Amino acid sequence: MSLGYAEKLSFIEDVGQVGMTEFFDSAHVLQDKVFAWLTVSCNVVKMVFLNDPDIKIEQLAKLIEKSRHLVVFTGAGISTSCGIPDFRGPKGIWTLQREGKPLPEASLPFHRAMPSMTHMALVGLEKAGVLKFVISQNVDGLHLRSGIPREKLAELHGNSFMETCSSCGAEYLRDFEVETIGLKETSRRCSDEKCGAKLRDTVLDWEHSKLVHFPLIIIGRIITLFPAPSLNLLDALPPKEMDLADKHCRMGDVVLCLGTSLQITPACNLPLKSLRGGGKIVIVNLQKTPKDKKASLVIHGFVDKVIAGVMELLNMQIPPYIRIDLFQIILTQSLSCDKKFVNWTIRIASVHGLGAPLPFIKSVEVSFSNNQNYKEATLDAQPFLLKRRTVQTETFEIFLNLKFSDGCGCLNTQIQIPFNLEDPDPTNGFILDRNATFENMREAAIQDLSCGQNAVVERKTTSVPKSEVTVHAIVTNVKTFDYQLSNGDVKPRKEALNGLIMTRKQRSKGRKRKSRP
């Protein structure tokens, strides 16, 4: 299956060091701290830490807990557990290109990649008021999809699922991968009636140098291992994103770098800005980086494993990931020329426009309540469109069985559409509060630990032409997280001290974390 943007990138000669050796800190160095119960006074117990300065996960947890302005700087390494390869690792994209090997096969379509444990842990930290800002070099869109607010995120190299208006600056997050990279014009326009300008993709293609009439960029080759001191590449990145990233790095008392080799300039120099104000840099990566000497703490290990240990020590839950997708059903009617019949059309389409792909639906089976009069139909190619003719006096139900594509957590869902010939009543239209509706759907999905929950979030009708459009929301993925991972024992080792072991449940009784202002 496609690796998406990786297959569109131009071949780049100078990408710095690739095929870098991976290092793993030993288990006792990584292992988070053993807890002990100490009796302080009658019937009062206190949880204390055993003193061991070499325990890196605990050191990181303490830094995060004490931080007042935590900034996280992420690279490709936080998405490898999502099935998205990195660039410079032993099986990275650039490494394989240099070796003349084909790119690795992706286990899922790029547009169905789900956030990792680390992505969702960051969401938990943000909701608790601990994490103030995220700076990402990734273009996979997983930070936005996980739930990090847009205003607290800088995507320095773009987003494969984002289009932006070159005129008014509006952003459009898609459920499909935008077809171009390199800030090119796409096939869609701004939906603002007062604007209507052509949209552009937001992903840098670093090899091609061109001037774009866009408030973002002059693109040049921005990837070098050690750029010349006089080389100013700040114009090569979106100023709005860079300005926010620069601001928060200067404010940060802890800048946590996750899964990045810190070789891409100018982005790799952003964490260093925190040092001027007395901030600390922490690097969690499998390979060594050029900035290791500047860091207060360097951890070599799987990012998911490290962050899971930190969340355990902070007594914080990692929120589940619930994906909700949208689609629209359009039912139109018109009288035949002799006015004896009604010609009608039903279409299942993307909410991003009739010409936009609908990537999470593989096929649609259509059946009818009066199946003696109408044959069932299977729509297995987009556009999902069915045309029929009926007499004016007939009413019936249309049943849609939507079959989902690979990567969705459920196989199908069924939608029932009533068909009648009454003139549509414009007052029957509505637009629900999507945030409230989505929250109810998430709660139901978490309770059921399954997907498939759906709801109508919008309905609009028109008389000319006679049509009804309904927008449906459906839960297509549910992913929960525990502290046990397949790539290593993430759960803290529980060792006995004086015959007592502290469990997570006991720990949760011992302290509660309050959200920071």
Would you mind describing this structure in some detail?
- α2 crosses α7.
- By secondary structure, the protein is of the alpha+beta class.
- β4 (131-136), α5 (142-146) and β5 form a beta-alpha-beta unit.
- Helices cover 16% and strands 28% of the residues.
- The strands form 6 sheets. A 6-stranded parallel sheet has the order 5-4-3-12-13-14, with helices on both faces. The chain has a 6-stranded antiparallel sheet with strand order 19-16-15-24-23-22. Strands 7-6-9-8 form a 4-stranded antiparallel sheet, with no helix packed on it.
- The radius of gyration is 26 Å and the shape is elongated.
- Mean pLDDT is 79; it is low at 32-54, 208-235 and 485-512.
- It has helices at 27-30, 56-66, 93-98, 117-127, 142-146, 239-251, 303-313, 434-448, 504-510; strands spanning 35-41, 44-49, 70-74, 131-136, 153-155, 162-165, 171-173, 185-189, 198-201, 210-211, 218-219, 254-258, 280-284, 297-299, 321-335, 341-349, 361-368, 377-379, 384-391, 396-404, 412-419, 430-431, 454-462, 466-479.
- The protein contains 9 helices and 24 strands.
- It is an enzyme of class 2 (transferase).
- Belongs to the sirtuin family. Class IV subfamily.
- Residues 50-317 form the Deacetylase sirtuin-type domain.
- Its EC number is 2.3.1.286.
- Pfam families: SIR2.
